Amino acid sequence: MKAVIRIMQVLLTAVWLCLLALSALLCLSSRGSGLTGISQWGGFVVTGDSMAPELKEGDLAVIHMGAVPKGGDVVFCKDGAGMPELTRIIGTSEGQLILKPDSREDSRLAPAGEIEGVFVGYLPGFGEPFRFLCSLPGVIAIFAAGLMLIVLPGFMLRAPRNSRPERPRRTTSQGGYTPRH
User: Is the pLDDT of residue 181 over 60?
Assistant: First the structure.
């Protein structure tokens, strides 16, 4: 039984350390454009309903930064006011891209250099947990939870128990009952 507990503890510790490292890396890699990510991959918490019904507010959009967009792709860029948004490429005109959010009728022209990344998938409703994991309080919470749930019980299992020293037994020559005082 102790071997099973030890194996579970090692596996949980490995998962905890990976989650802690990922959270710390994401916390340190927040980009000013509204994306948080590692290397060529980023996460963007959807705000508004520009890509409804596919993407809703609070979803986590996964963005491949530096990917070459093509017609029909959903892309991450800045809107006319400089705010980050997800929009779809619906065509080209005079060397520029025609961008149009799915839930709106208006479109706009944008140079290809304005596109920061291509949408590759999403996790419904995972935006706020992702935002928390990428923050300093999230890193601290993961660290504290791991200590309390994995590391501390492991130390408690290893701690020697205070056992009473064994009392020497009296032997009687009669082999009968020996009263204890």
Answer: yes
